[in-house]
Write a structure and sequence with these properties.
This protein is mainly beta and 237 residues long. The protein contains 4 helices and 11 strands. It folds into 2 domains: 10-82, Roll (Thiol Ester Dehydrase, Chain A), CATH 3.10.129.10; 95-232, Roll (Thiol Ester Dehydrase, Chain A).
């Protein structure tokens, strides 16, 4: 349900399957679900996560002057407003190069959140997205994503999430989490389609990093693009 123009509150829920860090929603997937509640976001949306999105919890979606706000009880979880990301990065590497990059994925040697829906190494095929974005030698990461049978726009948001983060995570013992994601989905890939997703660092600071991500179809068409802010957090566990 979208937030209603009469100011009344709508409801949403993030299923437990779509976790990022243990006990909270994958930032990209959560952002995509929230963006789906936002009127006038056909050209894209910015979702700012104020708190880790809780799982299997009824969340209230209320209209604001600029968009919507999402609450768990009285706790502000996220805010969203219509926005478009900037230009996508340069064109993708080939699917062969992206698959080879996945073998160099740093998360294979150590992962701060191995059950993450997007890039977790402990997720089974068909359960998580199993995106393993590895370096391609120019600062960018790349992976092949085979769209699942239940592919959706929020899953595309999830696919745009982790490949950007892994451009700035140099030490899994010092993880980052998504703080803000601005994304535009031009088209959702067909189930079973083999796509290439890439991440690119824009600006890396001591506690925050800005990145870009983009998703291309098997034919090389741009399907979606995003800009994000990632925030360093204390080591998990």
């Amino acid at each position: 349900m979208a937030a209603r123009g009469d100011g009344k509150v709508a409801r949403m829920r993030i299923a437990a399957r779509f976790n990022g860090p243990p006990g909270s929603g994958n930032g990209g997937y959560s952002g995509g679900l929230i963006a789906a509640e936002l009127p006038g976001a056909d050209g894209g949306a910015t979702v700012t996560l104020r708190k880790p999105p809780p799982l299997d919890t009824e969340l209230a979606v209320a209209p604001t002057a600029r968009g919507i706000a999402v609450y768990a009880g009285d706790l502000l979880i996220a805010e969203a407003e219509p926005a478009a990301p900037g230009a996508a990065m340069a064109g993708p590497v080939s699917a062969t190069e992206a698959a080879a990059a996945s073998a160099r994925y740093a998360g294979l040697a150590g992962h701060p959140f191995p059950t993450c829906f997007g890039c977790g190494t402990d997720r089974a095929v068909g359960d998580g997205l199993r995106l393993f974005p590895g370096p391609v030698g120019d600062g960018r990461t790349a992976a092949v994503w085979t769209a699942p049978a239940d592919v959706s726009a929020p899953m595309v948001w999830a696919a745009l999430d982790c490949p950007g983060g892994w451009t700035i995570i140099t030490d899994p013992a010092r993880p980052y989490v998504l703080g803000r994601l601005t994304a535009a989905v031009h088209a959702v890939p067909a189930p079973g389609e083999h796509c290439v997703v890439m991440g690119e660092p824009v600006d890396i600071g001591e506690r925050k990093g800005r990145v870009r991500t983009a998703l291309w179809s098997a034919a090389g068409d741009l399907l979606a693009r995003a800009e994000a802010v990632w925030i360093a957090v204390p080591p998990h566990g």
